[in-house]
Amino acid sequence: MNQADVTKLISQLRIAVRPSQRNLKNSDGPEGRLLKLRKTVTALMKHERIELYYNRADEARGYAELVRIISNGYNISSLHSIPIPKQLISNAIRHGDRHKATMELADYWLLEKQLVHKLFKVLVPRYENYNVSYTRMYRAPRDYPGMYYRQSVLELRGNPYPSLVMDQSHNRNLLHNVLLDEARKEFRRKKLADLVN
Amino acid sequence: MSRATKLHKASWCALSQLQQYRTKSNFSTSIASRNELFAQEQRRQRDAVGRIDKIEVRYLGLPEDVTLVMNNHISTPFNCAQHLSEGHCRRTALALIDGSVPWDMHRPLQESCTLQLLNFNVSEPHVVNKAFWRTCSFMLGAALTRAFKTEANLQLHSFPGPNIKSGSFIHDIVLETQNWQPSKSEMRAISAEMIRLAAQDLRIERLDVQQEIAQEIFKDSKYKSEQLPSIAQQNNGRVSLYRLGDHIDISRGPMVASTHFLGKCTVSAAHKLAEEGSAGAFYRIQGVALPCGFKLSHVAYGLLEERSQKLNPARLPHEPFEEQQQLQLS
């Protein structure tokens, strides 16, 4: 009846997440897992692009995403009663830096406290109008010979580094661009001919 | 390992590959004899090298410029890439000798030279694109040979030189029917055959032979044996042949290293060009393709597909023969 729409209370992730968590093998159990993830999320916020094992990256990614949802001022009073979602960025964007729960969340996930400022002053403005995920993940080659674990690169979108994927849209000589350009020319010729007749 | 053992291994591989194809119902004896002749000539040329001379190949490019000492008339650009990394072997579609001559990846080097390895993403990819388009036409021939039953009496005629701007690669064939109107699912079956070829990751080998041997190889193909004299005449009595799996065709080349470079591919249209003889007709099969790793949205690719259905303006096969050959050799 007058219940709030639950889907609007919690930020929606823009990435696919596994239904079950990975335990990230360590001697300290669940706490150790969280510490590992906090370290990763902190490093991601700090360096904006990190290379690490695939499992850990994929696990940390979801938490980092929601960190950012936190910081946009949004209907704060109604949200005090609900449990804090775990994700950092999306929450940061959603509630802004005047929201106590969000601040606590940022304080928990970012081990280096100067990054809290970065989160609200740099990352939140950057991602305010994004309609895609805030992080991006690539598979990376693994060392040979070396550990068998799959490697990956995790990065924040809009980072200042050169892109990791090849830019295939600007070189007009690439095969698909040649084909598309010719198709466009032919279309224009046809339009012009139609106009003349 | 002695050379004899190596050769034995190579021919054993070829044989097992052949046996694989033999299981197919439409594998004819003429294809088998063609392949046998091709392999024989390949072996003969390899044996004729005799004493092995060393050449210096100066490789220019990433990760660093190096000089490789290779075997004359034996080592290929692919062997040079093997010295660099697996990635080079996998990615390189075509080699560039002395900064200007495009060279097949699996064609032995003839003298000391500089070497560049090209892929589809280099800043000036005209040569690679052209080679890719030519390879697509060649592969289309192979796909058609596999797709048609023997009752259809398919004869490959030729494929004109690659023209990417026309929007489609083509292969001209002769069929024993004058009113073939392929349905959508039939075209899709041929496209699937192309994709299957790409998935098999077949090496594309080149062999330069004397005209007599080429005549012997194509003795049961009416059109090819008609074309051979004029091709050989323009090329000092030699003809360059290409082989992909069990499919052999004449082409000036160069072609890309392997079939796995074919990514998205659609065989889009078959146009009847002219009647041939009492019951047959020329058909022009057209298609469009992108190299693997090129991403294009469905809408954009749909536009390309649509455009590739229009009849390609390249020289028609039933027009005077010499001019046609000029085009094929371009």
TrEMBL record, chain A:
Family: Belongs to the bacterial ribosomal protein bL17 family.
SUPFAM superfamilies, per the entry: Prokaryotic ribosomal protein L17 (SSF64263)
Organism: Drosophila guanche (Fruit fly)
MF (Gene Ontology): structural constituent of ribosome
An example Gene Ontology CC term for this record: mitochondrial large ribosomal subunit
Superkingdom of origin organism: Eukaryota
UniProt keywords, alphabetically: Ribonucleoprotein, Ribosomal protein
GO biological process, one term: translation
Record-given protein name: Large ribosomal subunit protein bL17m
Keyword Ribosomal protein: yes
From TrEMBL, chain B:
Database matches in SUPFAM superfamilies: ThrRS/AlaRS common domain
One Pfam family, short name: TGS
PROSITE patterns documented for this protein: TGS (PS51880)
Keyword Protein biosynthesis included in the entry's annotation: no
Annotated organism of origin: Drosophila guanche
Domain of life the protein comes from: Eukaryota
The protein's name in its UniProt record: Large ribosomal subunit protein mL39
Keywords annotated in UniProt: Mitochondrion, Ribonucleoprotein, Ribosomal protein
GO cellular component, one term: ribonucleoprotein complex
Domain TGS: 53-119
One GO MF term: nucleotide binding
Similarity comment: family membership: Belongs to the mitochondrion-specific ribosomal protein mL39 family.
Keyword Transferase belongs to the record: no
Localisation: Mitochondrion
Entry-linked InterPro entries: Beta-grasp_dom_sf, Pro-tRNA_synthetase, TGS, Thr/Ala-tRNA-synth_IIc_edit
